[in-house]
Amino acid sequence: MKTTVNLGEKGKAVAQHYLQISQNNCLAIGVLFPDGAIGYYTSPGIQADSLFDIGSISKTFTAQVILKLVSENKLSLSDSVDVFLPLPKGVYPTIEMLLTHTAGYKHLTPVEITVPSLLIKSYARANVYRGIQEKAVIKALSKRNHTRACGYSYSDFAYAILAVVANRITGKNIMTLLQELIDDYRMKNTHVISTDNRVKS
User: How far apart are CA 59 and CA 43, in angstroms?
Assistant: First the structure.
């Protein structure tokens, strides 16, 4: 049987550090210990019906969307992305490379995506992929062929590509797919922060 413990002063100290950075927000911390115990801390303002947006772990949810499509035999991890996307002839990364951050894109944010975001809303103030057009992702990918898997290197761009692939296969934008996943798992306190944050065709 798992035990549940309050993280106490240590949890409070960690929470206060982050709350000083973003003072208008609340924070909940959950920790699963090796012995199976669950630790938690919730800052003032957290209620039983509080909603949490998926934020930076949208990649985890996007990966689950892709793996669900794999389980439905709608794609394979070994498939190259040009199987699904209208790309010029070339060698492109596989679904698995994109999922595992081994496609070689590193921390690349293509200029085709960065520049419009800078002009419209400023890079520092918003996610550059917010409201991105599918054609912008495809254009950026078409200029960046990759022939083999590389070492692990975290990549936002890789997951923008996966969002476009999911869109092409299902006909649904990634935000709709993420919300469906949240609903399927009955995560009633979890939501997608904005319905206009999507890859559009």
Answer: 25
